[in-house]
């Protein structure tokens, strides 16, 4: 009977060891899955980092273009003012010349 009881204890212990082994194997499997998830996440983070760098470069390029465009608009505005001033002076000169020509043709003082 003592021998039978020891044998049953050994079988119970072996069964418990097998169950623990199965649990450890399941934990190992889940850890491997978790490791793969982290590896995939690292790949995604790396890819998104490149995308973010591209976006940052595009934003910087846009800022540069806007600054250049603003400078060109200021230059155009200044040139437009100069052009208006020159046009105004040219019209005044033409009007003076036209008045001189009309007055020289009509000679209102000669009558």
UniProtKB/TrEMBL annotation:
Main location: membrane
Topological relation to the membrane, as annotated: Single-pass type IV membrane protein
Key word Electron transport present: no
Swiss-Prot/TrEMBL GO biological process terms: intracellular protein transport
Positions of the T-SNARE coiled-coil homology domain: 14-76
GO molecular function annotations of the record: SNAP receptor activity
Name under which the protein is recorded: Os07g0528900 protein
Taxonomic lineage: Eukaryota, Viridiplantae, Streptophyta, Embryophyta, Tracheophyta
